[in-house]
Write a structure and sequence with these properties.
The complex is a heterodimer. Chain A has nine helices and ten strands. By secondary structure, chain A is α/β, with parallel strands linked by helices. In chain A, the strands form two sheets. Chain A has a six-stranded mixed sheet with strand order 6-7-8-3-9-10, with helices on both faces. The two termini of chain A are 32 Å apart. By secondary structure, chain B is an all-alpha fold. Classes of the chains: A alpha/beta, B mainly alpha.
Chain lengths: 240, 220
């Protein structure tokens, strides 16, 4: 379980997250929506310790992410993350991209790591592209490569930071399909997204962020059909 | 027969051998200085990148001095002043020290550029997979940044190899010093300087060809 208590995050004088309380249960798919700059992405960065926090706490399965003694590198193996920019390692083939972390972080043998990588690439539909360099892949394929790379560490949670925002419209579908596949397999997911269709159809709950505050959280039907907050209704009216 | 005193004698095949040996010395001092300087410079570049303010205030000005003062002045000053502080270095050692520091000063900025070229998002992605800071540096930043600045580094390396000719002022018999000795004896400056130039070219050209080959391979 990911558990967030009274989380405050500042960038200098800018108060980006203003006291977030949120629990995400094992197996749940949570979509986080809201305007740019509302703190959604920062929330994900605070969950896996890529950003420091100023107050409050984030715990993952009981481990305090921001505590001094926490082995953050070990904890991050539980928390796969996919970014807006796919950040494929350009000097490695698709297979090597995925095999790198299992090999050097988990200490798997080269053969084992390659086996894991091949399996995960097949999983995301890139079984034909094992020995291709990222430069020869489309954006959608590179994003699926990034998903496979995260999955190869056998994470228990997946964090998606606007995974489709940088893609050409015709490539969005294949990435969303892959994310749906993971959701169907029971992966616990927090998806910061602008894809309202995905949020409505795939999530168990949807959270709406507005200016660093979690205004509202609930089942998709409630958020999309009967939002309590004025801000939520306004936002949804504008994106649709 | 009346004995004649001969001051000068023509260029002999043996002299080519003499120049070849000197070229090997040029190669040796260059390879040594460039290797040490690259390691040191990469370390400095990393400090400039990570240390930010502290390094900008302390290390950067020192490196600027070594990059800005002509190498020949650094060599002569170091060679003549090192004994005062108890360092009795021969011309080779003095030359190596100064060439190394000079290379390091140039490589520092190249290396910092390389780290910057990788970019924060790429490094966050690597760290999000569980790579430690050092694993990220070794397996992501080094190969990606290294490739990005490889052409600049080759430029520095070839430059330093040619600049190693300046160590001749300390009396180290590398290619240029050997040429001067031969010119004095044979009085054939054109021939000998042309030969020396050919030797330098023979040392540089394979390096630049190999570098181009690597760049092409990486570009795929």
């Amino acid at each position: 379980m990911i558990s967030i208590r009274d989380l405050h995050k500042y960038f200098g004088a800018l108060h980006v997250l203003k006291g977030i309380d949120l629990d995400v249960q094992k197996g749940e798919v949570l979509s986080v929506i809201g305007a740019s700059g509302s703190g959604k992405s920062t929330l994900l960065y605070c969950i896996n310790g890529l950003e420091k926090i100023q107050d409050g706490a984030v715990t993952v399965d009981g481990t305090d992410v921001h505590a001094k003694g926490t082995d953050i590198n070990k904890l991050r193996q539980k928390l796969g993350m996919v970014f807006q920019q796919w950040n494929s390692f350009p000097h490695l083939t698709a297979l090597e991209n995925v095999a790198l972390a299992p090999r050097i972080v988990k200490g798997k043998s080269k053969a084992e790591a390659r086996e894991i990588a091949a399996k995960q690439l097949q999983h995301v539909g890139l079984g034909e592209k094992l020995d291709v360099y990222p430069s020869a892949l489309s954006g959608g394929q590179q994003q699926r490569l990034a998903i496979a790379r995260a999955l190869a560490m056998e994470p228990e949670y997946m964090l998606f930071d606007e995974a489709t925002s940088a893609l050409d419209p015709e490539l969005v579908g294949e990435v969303l399909d892959t994310m749906r596949l993971l959701a169907d397999e029971g992966m616990t997911m927090i998806c910061v997204t602008h894809e309202m269709g995905f949020a409505r159809d795939v999530s168990d709950r949807v959270a709406f962020f507005h200016q660093g505050v979690m205004e509202e959280i609930g089942p998709p039907a409630q958020i999309f059909g009967d939002a309590r907050s004025e801000h939520t209704r306004k936002f949804l009216a504008n994106v649709r | 027969m009346e004995p004649t005193l001969k001051f000068f004698s023509g260029f002999a095949p043996n002299d080519l051998w003499f120049m070849g040996e000197a070229a090997l010395r040029t190669l040796w001092i260059s390879v040594l200085s460039i290797s040490l300087g690259t390691v040191l410079g990469t370390l400095f570049g990393w400090m400039l990148y990570e240390g930010r303010r502290a390094a900008t205030l302390t290390l950067a000005p020192v490196l600027d001095v070594f990059r800005s003062v002509p190498l020949i002045i650094q060599l002569v000053l170091f060679y003549n002043f090192a004994p005062i502080v108890g360092l009795n270095l021969d011309p080779f050692a003095s030359g190596t020290v100064i060439l190394t520091v000079y290379t390091a000063a140039l490589v520092a900025n190249v290396a910092r550029g390389g780290i910057e070229a990788v970019g924060a998002p790429m490094r966050r992605a690597a760290r999000s997979l569980g790579l430690s800071y050092w694993q990220d540096l070794r397996h992501v930043v080094l190969p990606i940044g290294g490739r990005a600045v490889f052409p600049s580094w080759v430029g520095v390396a070839l430059g330093v190899m040619k600049d190693s000719a300046l160590v001749s002022v300390l009396g180290y018999v590398e290619l240029l010093k050997a040429s001067q000795i031969l010119i004095t004896r044979t009085q054939e400056p054109f021939l000998i300087l042309a030969l020396a130039g050919a030797f330098y070219f023979a040392l540089s050209y394979p390096v630049s060809r190999y570098a181009t080959h690597l760049e092409n391979r990486w570009a795929q």
